[in-house]
């Protein structure tokens, strides 16, 4: 029987973040350049030039939206670079310790490392909420009623996969499973 089970958690280095960071950067750069060109009164393209496109108010608004979008894109690229939210859940039967490890933003709390004794755990809880923004999460429930999330943030995992993961964890550390009927 295995003594250590380790589940890797994907952080912000997922396809959707790369996609949106790129799309936002391209779109906002276009907005910014159009705003600046309207200020400098430079003709961008002979087919699309419009003499009615003035810097005040259209060009100023385009420049503002462009700068805002560029800053948002930089923030998303920064979270991708730092891989915020990544980490692992480790269940060690030989030492009797459960470790929840995550990376955050730089600073005092860059590394989040929570350790619990297996004896402190009362159950593994599965929380499933359907609707417009569905939630499918697995929690480590301690005897003092704290609930520590074990699943990644992002798109919801399908029901059979979340059930399988929760059953594997509860069987591995030999605790009850709650929330599944």
From TrEMBL:
InterPro entries: PSI_Ycf4_assembly
One Pfam short name: Ycf4
Keywords: Membrane, Photosynthesis, Plastid, Thylakoid, Transmembrane, Transmembrane helix
Domain of life: Eukaryota
GO cellular component term of the entry, any: thylakoid membrane
Subcellular location: Cellular thylakoid membrane; Membrane
GO biological process terms on file: photosynthesis
UniProt membrane topology term: Multi-pass membrane protein
Spans traversing the lipid bilayer: 20-42, 62-81
Functional summary from the UniProt entry: Seems to be required for the assembly of the photosystem I complex.
Family note: Belongs to the Ycf4 family.
Name of protein: Photosystem I assembly protein Ycf4
Organism: Laurencia snackeyi
Gene name of this polypeptide: ycf4
């Amino acid at each position: 029987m295995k003594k250590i089970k380790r589940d890797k958690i994907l952080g912000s280095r997922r396809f959707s973040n790369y996609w949106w960071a790129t799309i936002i950067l391209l779109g906002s750069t276009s907005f910014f350049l159009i705003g600046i060109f309207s200020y400098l009164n430079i003709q961008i393209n002979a087919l699309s030039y419009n003499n009615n496109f003035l810097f005040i108010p259209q060009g100023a608004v385009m420049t503002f939206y462009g700068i805002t979008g560029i800053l948002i894109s930089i923030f998303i690229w920064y979270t991708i670079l730092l891989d915020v939210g990544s980490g692992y859940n480790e269940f060690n039967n030989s030492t009797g310790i459960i470790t929840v490890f995550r990376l955050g933003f730089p600073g005092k709390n860059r590394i989040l490392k929570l350790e619990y004794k297996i004896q402190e755990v009362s159950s593994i809880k599965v929380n499933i909420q359907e609707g417009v923004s569905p939630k499918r999460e697995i929690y480590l429930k301690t005897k003092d009623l704290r609930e520590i999330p074990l699943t990644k943030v992002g798109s919801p995992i399908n029901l059979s996969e979340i059930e399988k993961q929760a059953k594997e964890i509860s069987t591995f550390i030999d605790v009850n499973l709650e929330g599944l009927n």
